Each structure stands twice: as structure tokens, then as C-alpha cells.
Amino acid sequence: MSCNYAEGLSPYEHKGILGIPEKFEPIDKFNKKCELLAQLISKSKHVVVHTGAGISTSAGIPDFRGPNGVWTLEKEGKRPTVNISFADAKPTKTHMILKKLVECNKVHYIVSQNIDGLHLKSGLPRKYLAELHGNMFIDECNVCKRQFVRSRPVETVGKKCSGVPCAAEHIGGRPCRGRLYDGVLDWEHSLPENDLLMAEWHSSIADLSICLGTTLQIVPSGNLPLETVKYGGQLVICNLQPTKHDNKSDLVINYYVDDILERVMNLLDIDIPTYNEADNLTIQAESCVIDWTLVRKDVLALEKIFKAKCKGVKKKKILIKNKRDSSDVVSKNNVDNIEVKSKVIKLEVTNENVANGSMINSEIKTELLDDDSVIKSEQSTDSDVILV
């Protein structure tokens, strides 16, 4: 359970801002913003999705910083009233939609801060997933660094030894004298190198990054979407609370992520798959050894693509750090200013498209209205709709 995971972490004071009030878009603005997001996905060539705890709340797993989050309630001496076990939790509609979008080549990579294993249970291949903070359903060898899927969530946190021998030889690898450790990071641990590299490089070459259910307060994870912006791409943030990067985004949608993505799938005319236990590797792990190791050749292949596109391109600022840290967040005194500093998205759509109730094929223009009206993309339009 989330509470057990949180209690297993080392004491840490800098957990970020807790309990910021949630906000919801009016339904007309919600629909228009979803239409814009669907069009951005359709037009983009390389889409990366960054997922946080907010995509798992509909599975019964509490988030951490929401009004009823684990850490928010912890400060009040309380615990969440809804808190399903990691073993029993099933992938949400968002998890299944993301898997489908990867299969349809609409989404090209997913960067996850979650340790709940729901991306794994959904059947999403390892090739398309970076798990920056670990996974409750993964063991890692301390010698060969291979990762293996567990049938049950680990009972420890912080890379502690289970005493179980490495299983490499059971999947055709060389015999290894290593021992398996839990794959869940504690605050002092460095992020897994290959996962972090894949996340950073995919974010850098992306022309669109979409953040789902995260306030982006923990670094370096929370700063990775900015790599897309630094290299000229667009940023969309979908979250119920304001985030530290709202003012750097091109579109902010304050609503439930399940509802946002369901609306987007309808606009893209793509069916939403249902969860299938046959795709759940944790169930398969009950009877066989399953390798979950990130393939090194995939890392090297992406490195070539990253260097070809980004080498020699000057970025504004590098924010990557080696360890998990949430000290790089706005102070409590600035909470009230987060929404004020957020960008306003200006949609310009033709009267005909508005009358038809659809913007998926319309010409649009997005402007940043908080700083000198910087234009992100320009296309011909007729009428204005302001989304605040």
C-alpha cells in the first residue's frame, strides 16, 4: 500500500508543497482543451508522456501531495481511508490508454515516477518505459544489474537484499554470484542510469511532452519535460493541482486524467482496451522467470538519435541532478501565485468548426500571454476562444 511504501522511506523533510487545492475546468473549456490536445498528438512526430501518482488514484492507490494524499494527511496525523494493496491494484483507464497509444505509434515513450507496477501489469513493453523511482514488482541483481519480475510486491524499500540468488542463468545468461535486491529507491539513491538516460534523451528529441498526474516537484524527474521545451518542443500538463512548470507549458488541463484521455481517444477515433490479466507479467512470474532488464542496445540506438538531433544545439539551462530531491520547489509563500503565473492558452478556431463541435481538424494558434505574447505556433484562424 502507498502508506506502507511511504513509511518505509527514510525520514525526509523536503517533500514539496502539500495539499494545494484541486481545480476543475468548466466542461466547455475542458472539451476545447481536449480537442487541442488530440490535435497536438496527431500532428507530433515524437510524443513522450510523463506519469505521476495521479494516474493511479482511480485504482485505489492514494497520491502523495493531493488534498487527501499520503503525505498531506501524514502531517495531520491521519491516513488515507482508501488504500488498496499494490498486489490487488489493477491498471486504470489511463494505463490502458497509454499502452494503446504506444501500440498505435501515437506515443513513443513513457517516463514514470510511479513504483506501483501498474504500467508493468498493463502489458506495456519495457522498451517503451523508464521507471525512474523503481518498481515494487521488480528485483535487481547487485552484480549483473539484471532485473526480474516478481509475482508479489516487495516487502522492503531502499534496495535491500532479499538473499535470493540472481536468476540470470535461468534465462540463458551466465551464472551470476549476485543477490537480488528490491528495486525501489529511497531518497538518497541515484536514479537508475539507463532509465534516466532514456528518459532524458526521449524528452530532448520529443516535439511534444505530456505530463499526467504529477505536480513535477521531485527533481530530476520533474524537470525532464523541460528538455522538450528547451529543444523547441511543446509541453502539456494535465493535473488537478497547479504545478511548478505550468508557466512553461503550452497547455494546462485541470481535470481527471482518465476523463481527459478518454475524451482524447474518442476524438482520435481509437478504441480503449480493457485490462487483460493474460498481459500481466506479475501473474506470469508465478510460474517462470521474466527478465525486465532495459536492453543496452536500445539505449545505444537512442543515443545516436539524440546526438544527431541535439548535439551542438544550445540549451537555456541544464537541470539534471544525480539524486532524487524535492528542495527545488516554490516556497509555501508562493503557492497562491502558482496559478497567477500559469500561461494562458489562446485557441483560435473557425466558426464552422465550433458549430460542428469539433476542433480536431481545425487550424489553431497557441500564444503565451504572460510574457510578451510569445508565439509558439502560428496558423490561420478566424475567431478567438480564451481558455484561462
From TrEMBL:
The active site is at H133 (proton acceptor). This is protein acetyllysine N-acetyltransferase. It holds the Pfam family SIR2. InterPro entries: DHS-like_NAD/FAD-binding_dom, NAD-dep_sirtuin_deacylases, Sirtuin, Ssirtuin_cat_dom. Keywords: Metal-binding, NAD, Transferase, Zinc. Belongs to the sirtuin family. Class IV subfamily. Its EC number is 2.3.1.286. It comes from Galleria mellonella (Greater wax moth). GO terms for molecular function: histone H3K9 deacetylase activity, NAD-dependent; metal ion binding; NAD+ binding; transcription corepressor activity. It is an enzyme of class 2 (transferase). GO terms for biological process: negative regulation of transcription by RNA polymerase II. GO terms for cellular component: nucleus. PANTHER family: NAD-DEPENDENT PROTEIN DEACYLASE SIRTUIN-5, MITOCHONDRIAL-RELATED, NAD-DEPENDENT PROTEIN DEACYLASE SIRTUIN-6. Zn(2+) binds at C141, C144, C166, C176. Residues 26-271 form the Deacetylase sirtuin-type domain.
